[in-house]
């Protein structure tokens, strides 16, 4: 049986006795390798030693111990099976508890964690060259990085954006808005579709932020990027109706859709119309870089500000649909899908969050007249 990160995440949500049995069935070594690979990836966006420092993880399961070496620092982290002869850092923990700490439901899971620092030390004056002090400082930094990476939500989204190199903070200032709207999803097993990923920076950011989630990256062409655990890639044009339908059928439904693709207005609207029906109730559809709505070269306009052919004009229509019960019409109106299922719209500079849910709240009561003669001063 192939053990996947998704199956390991599912085990982390089980009660203790069921989780133990499930780990035994999957294979403790296979589970440990997936969990530690997640820890290793996260150390890459956390402060750590400048040089490589091996950290031994000593994991207990079923009365036995499993030893792994996590190498931290030096620009890249790696995991290898087996113990070290004389490790400067040892982290001991029960495997099922480490599993919960990395992939489990929100909470603190460190009751069995022990950290041992074995780097040489000595009294004042015993290290004239400072070599031992530097070694111990590197060991402390490695222990901190490894233990922090094995803890839930060690950094906020802005810090992740900076450390992964995405433009969502710095060139744009989106991470505060994302945290406001995505905070409630962070500890859930969400499925995220992001359209457009440049060099994969935001894909890495989202997989770290949604530690139990799955991220699907859609890009126009294969850039030969290495996908993190819990991430996969699909390639095609975001205005290709057949391609979008296949992505939705194979990978949906989604909890979150983020459009950071071409920003060409027609492409944005095509993607929304195909993908929004595949967004779960309670989910969010995000459209970045609304400024392209005003650029003629991108299918926008700075004169026809309400045309539904632009992204912002379309969002304005969604606002009308959100209040469709209030509109005065000469003929009976059959509410559209978005009229019925867009339950809110949050607008910030250059970015829109469209909330999905039932929009069935009734308008003003019938006895409230809508005629102009009802106006009074």
TrEMBL record:
<comment type="pathway">
    <text>Antibiotic biosynthesis.</text>
</comment>
<keyword id="KW-0808">Transferase</keyword>
<dbReference type="GO" id="GO:0017000">
    <property type="term" value="P:antibiotic biosynthetic process"/>
</dbReference>
<dbReference type="Pfam" id="PF17843">
    <property type="entry name" value="MycE_N"/>
</dbReference>
<dbReference type="GO" id="GO:0032259">
    <property type="term" value="P:methylation"/>
</dbReference>
<dbReference type="GO" id="GO:0008168">
    <property type="term" value="F:methyltransferase activity"/>
</dbReference>
<keyword id="KW-0045">Antibiotic biosynthesis</keyword>
<dbReference type="Pfam" id="PF13578">
    <property type="entry name" value="Methyltransf_24"/>
</dbReference>
<keyword id="KW-0949">S-adenosyl-L-methionine</keyword>
<keyword id="KW-0489">Methyltransferase</keyword>
<dbReference type="InterPro" id="IPR029063">
    <property type="entry name" value="SAM-dependent_MTases_sf"/>
</dbReference>
<protein>
    <submittedName>
        <fullName>Class I SAM-dependent methyltransferase</fullName>
    </submittedName>
</protein>
<feature type="domain" description="Methyltransferase MycE N-terminal">
    <location>
        <begin position="8"/>
        <end position="109"/>
    </location>
</feature>
<dbReference type="InterPro" id="IPR040800">
    <property type="entry name" value="MycE_N"/>
</dbReference>
């Amino acid at each position: 049986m192939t053990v996947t990160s998704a199956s390991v995440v599912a085990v982390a949500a089980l009660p203790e006795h069921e989780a133990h049995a499930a780990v035994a069935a999957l294979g403790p070594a296979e589970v440990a390798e997936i969990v530690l690979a997640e820890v290793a990836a996260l150390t890459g966006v956390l402060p750590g030693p400048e040089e490589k420092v091996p950290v031994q993880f000593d994991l207990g399961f079923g009365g036995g111990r499993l030893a792994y070496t996590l190498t931290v620092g030096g620009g890249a982290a790696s995991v290898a099976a087996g113990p070290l002869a004389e490790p400067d850092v040892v982290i001991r923990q029960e495997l099922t508890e480490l599993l919960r700490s990395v992939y489990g439901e929100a909470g603190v899971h460190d009751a069995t964690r022990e950290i041992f620092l074995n780097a040489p030390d000595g009294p004042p004056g015993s290290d004239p060259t400072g070599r031992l002090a530097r070694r111990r400082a590197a060991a402390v930094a490695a222990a901190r990085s490894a233990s922090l990476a094995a803890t839930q939500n060690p950094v906020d989204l802005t810090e992740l954006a900076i450390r992964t190199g995405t433009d969502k903070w710095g060139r744009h200032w989106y991470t505060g808005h994302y945290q406001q709207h995505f905070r409630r999803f962070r500890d859930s097993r969400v499925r995220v579709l992001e359209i457009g990923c440049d060099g994969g920076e935001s894909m890495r950011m989202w997989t770290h932020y949604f530690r139990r989630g799955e991220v699907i990256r859609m890009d126009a062409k294969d850039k030969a990027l290495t996908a993190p655990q819990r991430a996969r890639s699909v390639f095609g044009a975001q205005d290709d109706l057949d391609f979008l339908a296949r992505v939705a059928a194979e990978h949906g439904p989604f909890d979150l859709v983020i459009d950071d693709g071409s920003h060409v207005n027609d492409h944005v609207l095509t993607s929304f119309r195909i993908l929004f029906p595949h967004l779960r109730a309670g989910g969010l559809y995000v459209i970045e870089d609304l400024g392209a709505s005003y650029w003629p070269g991108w299918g926008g306009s700075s004169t026809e500000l309400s045309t539904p052919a632009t992204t912002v004009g379309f969002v304005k229509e969604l606002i009308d649909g959100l209040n469709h019960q209030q509109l005065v019409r000469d003929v009976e109106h059959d509410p559209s899908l978005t009229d019925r299922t867009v339950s809110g719209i949050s607008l910030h500079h250059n970015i829109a969050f469209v909330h999905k849910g039932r929009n069935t709240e009734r308008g003003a009561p019938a006895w409230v007249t809508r005629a102009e003669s009802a106006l009074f001063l």
